[in-house]
Design a protein that fits this description.
Blueprint: E1 7-8, E2 12-13, H1 16-24, H2 29-37, E3 42-47, E4 55-60, E5 66-70, E6 77-79, H3 81-86, E7 93-95, H4 98-105, E8 110-111, E9 131-135, E10 143-149, H5 153-156, E11 163-170, H6 174-177, H7 199-208, H8 224-240, E12 251-252, H9 253-261, H10 283-292, E13 296-299, E14 308-312, H11 328-344, H12 356-360, E15 367-375, H13 379-385, E16 396-397, H14 398-410, E17 427-428, H15 432-438, E18 450-451, H16 452-463, E19 464-472, E20 475-481, E21 487-493, E22 499-504, H17 513-523, E23 528-532, H18 538-542, H19 546-552, E24 569-574, H20 578-587, E25 596-598
Parallel strand pairs: 7-9, 21-25
Antiparallel strand pairs: 1-3, 2-3, 3-4, 4-5, 5-6, 8-11, 9-10, 10-11, 12-14, 13-14, 15-16, 15-19, 17-18, 19-20, 21-22, 22-24, 23-24
Helix pairs in contact: 1-2, 4-9, 11-20, 13-15
């Protein structure tokens, strides 16, 4: 709602009767007391300009900071982010991943794929249009956005796609920027004192509690030097993935820390350990220390606004010694996926290794499929490649080409001085040599200012041929030109309203189609069958060789059709089981998500 500037009329002081009415609409006692204690509450009319214009009433405290705004459709009194950070329990809270918060800050609504459905179970009583706040999944994450539910939570739990929350107001939008731009301190709920009249109730509850109930364990925080190492590792991981952030600078320091540093901490780092537990103690000091070491560039707002991250040093010498590790965000995704897979399979999840016994019983080989690229023999392509680190005749991964392109483009974009206005290094103008390569496909945007990600996609399409490599237990099986083959899940319409699911390409990962058909017959409580994959199927085209299929099926315990005819075997399962089979492949058979195509 406030992703574009809003028009505000002159403000007036709120009358006593109107102030009492405002207080009566607030449900939390602590917030009511704060409003009663305000010396002056002012009110102003405002108009938004995102889509359909809407008239608002905005309330400000005595410091001129927005605390609430009243909507006309739907009719809500909405707390500002400043108010919600002070009083986090003012509204029901929905938890999402940090990479989703970036989308919300650009005005997007919260979509269902951005939610972890088990977190919605305590909120099943909420209905459409009720207000909710949104924060990250870490315990100390502040509120980042507020909005209203697009559907009842009970319906969201059953749905697979669509909007979950209509976003109204976020950190760093134009309403937020009318305030101090500083994260306020949360107001703690008061603890009952010994003189409190509720002591008797507390004592009664204590008597009712069994004496042998163990006290909850107290999480021990690591020493400051260990926290320093965790945060440095997180910063290096962020730099290692820095190309994804190239177009997002300058970025508020609080967003950089919460959305990129905290999720990038090593998986073994305690969740509660953060910059406050480090030797720096504050985010500002931590950023200054790492700016001196040339990891990043920071710009402070002299008017008291929020500190900005202007750029990252993606060629820092420490990155050459850096070893990639599993981050907290990656571990959370794995844990959530394992839990969802166990729920779909109807089994109780094992806290340590869900469905480990099921996957171990298959004894699958270690399979690795790599998408590669080889430079075309066009003279313009070879002329450009001569100025890069790319080997003209070699096979290269997407990341290798991306790194080489990044170094090439860095030579075109001058680094801004500390006093100069930050340069948007995410947008570049290709030089004549690169523009000639990008224009091979007739693109008119080759000589214009475009983002690095667009340059990479255009370069891969115009200058390189797709290849793929298949390795089995560390041994090369084949290298072929063409699109990388995947396991394909496709819904097939049968007679009337009935559907079936077709599963092809299982041989790529050593999964026996006949055995899987028997397993699915029990797991899905429906009929299954197998038959040869049609010759025009993408997987059949990629593996149309008896030699390749013989290597892929050598360990199968049963006779496979590919041994007598050059064809893969397709499993047909009753009903639309695509979501179930996809989760089974990802979490029981450890098939990479990029190797499963759902049609």
């Amino acid at each position: 709602m406030f992703k574009k500037p809003h028009t505000t009329k002159p403000s007036n002081q709120l009358s006593n009767s109107a102030c009492k009415k405002l207080v009566s609409q607030v449900s939390t006692g602590l917030e009511q007391e704060r409003l009663k204690g305000e010396k002056r509450i002012s009110v102003a009319r405002a108009y938004t300009h995102t889509g359909q214009e809407q008239q608002l009433t905005i309330y400000y405290d005595s410091d001129g900071e927005p605390i609430y705004f009243q909507m006309t459709n739907p009719h809500h009194l909405v707390p500002s982010i400043y108010t919600l950070i002070r009083f986090p329990t003012l509204l029901p809270t929905i938890i999402t991943n940090h990479h989703v918060l970036d989308k919300l800050l650009h005005g997007a609504d919260l979509m269902l794929p951005g939610l972890h459905k088990p977190d919605l179970l305590p909120l099943v009583h909420l209905v459409q249009n009720e207000l909710v706040s949104i924060r990250g999944h870490l315990p100390d994450d502040p509120i980042w956005a507020v909005g209203y539910l697009a559907q009842d939570v009970s319906l969201l739990l059953k749905a697979e796609s669509g909007k979950a929350v209509i976003t109204l107001h976020t950190q760093n939008d134009f309403l937020w920027n009318t305030g101090s731009k500083r994260i306020p301190t949360p107001v703690e709920n008061p603890q009952p004192s010994p003189e409190s009249p509720d002591v008797a109730l507390v004592e009664d509850e204590a008597r009712a509690q069994p004496l042998d109930t163990p006290a909850p364990p107290i999480a021990e925080k690591p020493p400051p030097d260990q926290v320093d190492e965790y945060l440095l590792s997180a910063l290096l991981m962020t730099l290692w993935k820095g190309d994804k952030l190239a177009g997002q600078f300058p970025m508020p320091a609080s967003l950089f820390y919460s959305a990129h540093i905290l999720p990038a901490r090593p998986a073994g780092c305690p969740r509660a350990a953060g910059v406050k537990d480090s030797s720096a103690k504050t985010l500002a000091k931590w950023l200054k220390a790492h700016q001196k070491k040339d990891f990043l560039q920071v710009k402070e707002d002299r008017k008291g606004g929020e500190t900005l991250i202007t750029s990252l040093n993606l060629s820092h010498p420490e990155l050459h010694k850096f070893d990639k590790f599993r981050t907290i965000a990656e571990q959370d995704k794995l844990d959530a996926a394992a839990l969802q897979s166990a729920e779909l399979a109807g089994a109780a999840p094992d806290a340590k290794n869900p469905q480990a016994a099921f996957s171990a019983s298959w004894n699958l080989p270690e399979t690795r499929i790599s998408a590669l690229f080889r430079a075309r023999k066009d003279p313009r392509v070879r002329a450009w490649i001569a100025g890069t680190e790319i080997e003209p005749e070699g096979l290269h991964s997407r990341q290798q080409i991306k790194d080489a392109l990044g170094k090439y483009l860095d030579g075109q974009v001058a680094r801004a001085s500390a006093s100069a206005k930050p340069v948007n290094r995410g947008v570049v103008v290709p030089d004549a040599s690169l523009a000639a390569v990008l224009a091979r496909d007739g693109s008119s945007a080759a000589a214009a200012a475009i983002s690095r990600s667009e340059v990479l996609e255009m370069l891969l399409a115009s200058a390189f041929e797709p290849w793929w490599r298949l390795e089995r237990d560390g041994v090369l099986v084949t290298e072929k030109q063409g699109e990388t083959p995947t396991i394909v899940l496709k819904k097939k319409k049968r007679a009337g309203p009935k559907h079936a699911t077709l599963i092809a390409g299982l041989e790529l990962f050593g999964i026996e189609p006949g055995r899987l058909a028997k397993e699915l017959r029990t797991m899905c409580a429906g009929s299954t069958t197998t038959h040869p994959v049609p010759p025009d199927h993408p997987a059949a085209k990629a593996l149309a060789s008896k030699d390749i299929l013989a290597k892929l099926t050598a360990r199968f315990s049963t006779e496979h059709a590919a041994r007598s005819i050059a064809a893969l075997v397709e499993v047909e399962c009753q009903g639309d089981q695509r979501a179930f089979v996809q989760n089974l492949l990802l979490h029981s058979f450890a098939v990479p998500k990029s190797s499963v195509t759902v049609l």
